[in-house]
């Protein structure tokens, strides 16, 4: 059989109506812990959290990676299908998907991204995955028999795809529902055969696209495909739903990356004055009049002892051409401050540093330092999509917690069945 296109239509499983969508859609599984999910789902029997965080329906303390959790997720998903809360499309289709958060609006497509293209590196990665998180997604998909949470793919604008989206968002949506944080999720069906052909063929013109978020979902879908091919043997044809993985694909010019700030638990045995003196060996340090929110690359804010400071490197730092990873602001801060002054060598393993998404604001950083929980906070200018693309194109990976995408997708908007 011929290779599938980069973007294929899917037999989407989605909320049956506007009212059902408002009941069902939920935050992504990985932004809540079990206690937060249990609290959020109270009195909401149809929340998708009963699928994505099924431990909430089991005794507190249940191992979130136990088989009982995956079985409960499958049971809840099947209940929602049989009860008509969720419906499966009768034929493969695309969806236009819009997120609106305040003044920010981004519109893209829900697609089936070709697993073979992921395996070949055409769908490019920029992060390492953790085996335990991959295993979790693999087990979730196998038991539920569907991919229930989309990854995010960023692609360079394609006029033909843009035209299909603009045409279809003029129609009545399947639903428009408010999710967590006041984000409005709107979904339109794209089922016209000509539109489907246009999107599939236009996607093939893309040499590369980029995983913005959802590296574990993508890696898990690849592993599940291998499992399905092996287990089905001669029955495998190459066009089954498991040959693609669920993705929300957005043009890069519509996406927004927020700052991803750092808080540190201690000053590595240094007093505040000595700490500032050490920083001055690599940065200019000036006291800020108010909160120090960087306005450009190579600016950093520091909150220490109730005061804000603005830091700018006074030593040479790498350019993107020299090394796209070391040139990132997150790398510069790590090299010159977290490593050189604080002795924090490995952000993946150190328990002396934590990360705070910019959506939470600088007041959250002040709160964590003023409470005594943390000793200091650093603010950064957001990593750009161009920087992300440069790292991915160079075959490298980003440092931990380099990008924070908002608005977040919702789970339960669309799922992709295995068969």
Could you characterize the architecture of this molecule?
With 419 residues, the protein is of the alpha+beta class. It has two domains: 7-256 and 407-417, no CATH class; 260-381, Conserved hypothetical protein from pyrococcus furiosus pfu- 392566-001, domain 2. The protein is 31% helix and 23% strand. The protein contains 13 helices and 21 strands. The chain has helices at 18-24, 34-40, 49-52, 67-82, 115-119, 131-144, 159-168, 193-203, 215-232, 272-279, 329-339, 362-370, 385-393; strands at 7-8, 13-15, 86-88, 94-101, 104-114, 123-124, 146-147, 151-155, 175-178, 184-190, 209-213, 244-251, 257-258, 260-264, 283-287, 300-304, 307-313, 353-357, 376-380, 404-405, 416-417. Strands 1, 4, 5, 6, 8, 9, 10, 11 and 12 form a nine-stranded mixed beta sheet that branches. β9 (175-178) and β10 (184-190) form a beta hairpin. The chain is globular and about 65 Å long. The mean pLDDT is 94.
Strand content: 15-25%
Oligomer: single chain
* Uncertain segments: none
Helix amount, in percent? 25-40%
Count of alpha/pi helices: 13
Integer-rounded radius of gyration: 23 Å
- Head-to-tail CA distance between termini: 17 Å
* Sheet with the most strands, sense and barrel status: 9 strands, mixed
Shape: globular
What is the residue-averaged pLDDT?
94
Structural class: alpha+beta
Number of domains: 2
Q: Say how many strands there are.
A: 21
